[in-house]
Design a protein that fits this description.
The chain has 253 residues and is an alpha+beta fold. Helix content is 17%, strand content 60%. The chain is built from 3 helices and 12 strands. The radius of gyration is 32 Å and the shape is elongated. The N terminus is likely disordered.
Amino acid sequence: MRKKKMDLFVLLSLLLPVTASAQQAEEMPGTGNGQAVKDLQESRWTVKPMAGMTLTTLVGSDASDVSSAMGWGLGLEGECRLSRWLGLSFGAIYTINRFNSDEKAVEEDTYWNYRVEMNDPRYKQEHIQVPLLLNVYPAKGLTLKAGLQPSLLLSAQAKVHIGGYRAKTEEILGLISPETIAAAEKVALDYDQTVGIRSELHKTNLLVPVGASYEWRGITLDVRYHFGLFNESKNNDAQERYLMVTLGYKFNM
């Protein structure tokens, strides 16, 4: 009987240090099984609706007269946290990108007695963007991200101010001749005209988004800068660059 008690005491003496070590490893971050449990808890899916503003411009030798303008975007992103430090995200974002130009063009005809001045076009493009991002989590709440973003052009317009003059030929009676046109009253032109330009642009593009976000209690502020890899237009070398700042909320799945 006494021998059994001694054996039980020895067994308990061996088990207690092991149990204490395991409990300590579970409580201390970065060690043993506790870290594995924590990493497993952080490997989760989230969904984030978001909306915000864009600031777009073009770069290239044919874009020297382009200036930035504000647009907006909204979308939905899903994120999979693979480990404590790494994750992947993907989504779909609808954007309206705007930019302006100081470009001027003049069309003149002395026979028909008109002069049309087309000034300061303002461009508007609608896109569906599909960001595919690698995320790095260096600190609590902070995410650094980069990846690739295919883009589909939905529509493109240019709003141009029309100035100049034309002959008021509707008041001319009889046969129209250079003399009657030249003598006609001039009508000033001063209006805006919107024209579709989608046919002049490439329908698809590929961008490289680089940015960071900060999350606090699910509320996420996201800042990304996008580099277009291909020319926007079929007729020049201008490439798109735009900044996007969004506010969103993360829902755990």
